[in-house]
User: Which sequence fits this backbone?
């Protein structure tokens, strides 16, 4: 019988048949190396048996799930923030669209149906002119610096808020 780690583990666990046990004991008596290996495995097995299992409290799962649900639910303040930013963009978009339509309707006469396209281009040009001058090559770096500074400050306050709510 060739002694392997599997047979040594089966011996320690008491799972060898009578014939395997006889053959095993003969091999162990004849080999010092197998005796040493068996002693090491028995010591390790006894050490593992002495280790107490950790068992969490009965309500561990429910408390953990409750904490996960709290972290996964969007906070009311986050919902309000998203709603307010969305509302601002919607109101600005509707205002611009209303202004354009008012300009078109106010300056359009029934006989001038071809002029509608020119009116739209004129109104858009009037609206776009301040943005063109704002983002010209001479002032773009200043605008970029102001926007970057605002993003950095907003990020700081956002992450600080996240730390205090955890």
Assistant:
């Amino acid at each position: 019988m060739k002694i392997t780690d599997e047979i040594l583990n089966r011996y320690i666990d008491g799972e060898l048949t009578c014939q395997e046990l006889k053959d095993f004991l003969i091999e162990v008596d004849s080999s010092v190396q197998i005796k040493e290996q068996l002693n090491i495995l028995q010591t390790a097995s006894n050490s593992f048996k002495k280790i107490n299992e950790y068992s969490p409290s009965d309500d561990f799962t429910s408390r953990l799930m409750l904490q996960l649900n709290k972290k996964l639910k969007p906070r009311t303040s986050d919902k309000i923030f998203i709603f307010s930013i969305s509302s601002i963009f919607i109101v600005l978009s509707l205002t611009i669209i209303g202004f354009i339509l008012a300009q078109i309707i106010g300056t359009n006469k029934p006989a001038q149906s071809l002029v509608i396209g020119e009116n739209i281009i004129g109104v858009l040009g009037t609206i776009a002119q301040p943005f063109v001058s704002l983002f010209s090559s001479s002032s773009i770096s200043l605008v970029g610096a102001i926007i970057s500074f605002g993003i950095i400050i907003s990020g700081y306050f956002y992450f600080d808020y996240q730390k205090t709510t955890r």
In short: The longest helix spans residues 76-107.
